[in-house]
Amino acid sequence: MTERPTTTSVITRLSPAKINLFLHITGKRVDGYHNLQTVFRLLDWGDYLHFTLVDDAAFSIIDKTLDAGKLCHQLLTLSGADTITSSINDNLIFKAARALLVFAIQANRLPQQLAQIQITLDKHLPMGAGLGGGSSNAATTLLVLNEIWQLDVNQNELIKIGASIGADVPIFIFGKDAIAMGIGEELTAIDLPEQQYLVLTPNAHVSTAQLFTHPQLQRDIDALSIETIQSQCNEYVQHLNTPYQNVFTPVVISLAPAVDEALRYLQGLESQALGTARMTGSGSAVFLPLDTSVTTDKALLATWIKDAPCAGYLVRNL
Fold it and tell me: Rounded to the nearest 5°, which phi and psi values hold at 283?
């Protein structure tokens, strides 16, 4: 008797980068976290995640009280992330899958069978760059596994799950440019003009924990209303005018000379690019918004990248 061949399906998704057009800390919360205000912009550049499932390989859920971590190991294999964490249990992709299963078990939404999946990470974004790479990977995993496993978890529920994994995860589930408050989970969509950026990724990393405890970090920026941020986008989209700033920048450039060098390089191009260079997140990546008058000059842009002190990329908003 001839065995029926198994068929495989592959779902490939962009796991996009983000930049912060500004980033304020407005105070410390009772839970120890800090309240933030920022505008997130998603980019057409990032990692890729490939989800391969064998159509005939379904895992039967007999005991719905099964530990979510053990179930995760039975359902998923992960490749391409070996150098990110020493243990798969610490990887944000695996943490996202486990958190999704925990939610499904607690909500009694676990189906009788779940597809077994091979996840392959095609990594392009540098780690510790403030571009949200790991958080984006986690969000993409939540979105795709929810779809494959047909768990019917809605966006608000996914955002809450994402926030439990990391402060930047919710924006990637939200999937559009947004004003963010709280720890990054209170999101309001914002319409911004099309934009191209020159992004530099210096080979430097300062731990976020070190930055949040640094004595020079400003933690008391006056909170702005959503209406103010929406109406004043000309003050932070192309240029960065007071009171808008990234409070992490002075601390990071004092601790990481490579970031200082990259930012100074972009500042030297501001008069031609007609934009204000700045750092994203807690670093180390820096970026320069480009006026439309220079985006068509391919030779000029190529020279800017060639002369940069570190790797440079031309990217657009998503």
Answer: 85, 170
Rounded CA separation 49/36 (Å): 29
Task: State how far the Cα of 302 lies from the Cα of 42, in Å rounded to an integer.
Answer: 23
In this structure, the answer to whether residues 21 and 155 fall within a common structural domain is yes
| pLDDT tens figures, 191-211 | 999 999 999 999 998 888 899
Q: Is the dihedral of CA 102, 105, 108, 114 positive or negative?
A: positive
243 within a domain of the structure (yes/no): yes
Would you please indicate which residues are annotated as catalytic (active-site) residues? 18, 168
Read off the DSSP letter of residue 277.
-
From the CA atom positions of the chain, what is the Rg in Å? 21
Domain of 112 in residue numbering reads as 8-187
Q: Which helix (H) or strand (E) holds 78?
A: strand 76-79
- Among 115, 95, 108, 85, smallest CA distance to 161 is for 95
> How many domains are contained in the chain?
2
Pick the last residue of a domain from 127, 161, 187: 187
Judge if 197 and 183 occupy the same domain: no
pLDDT in tens, 253-263: 999 999 999 99
Q: For 144-179, what is each residue's pLDDT tens digit?
A: 999 999 999 999 999 999 999 999 999 999 999 999
Q: Could you tell me the pTM of the whole model?
A: 0.94
Q: 7-12 — which CB contacts under 8 Å span 24+ positions?
A: 7/54, 7/55, 7/56, 8/52, 8/53, 8/54, 8/55, 9/52, 9/53, 9/55, 10/50, 10/51, 10/52, 10/53, 11/50, 11/51, 11/53, 11/144, 11/147, 11/148, 12/48, 12/49, 12/50, 12/51
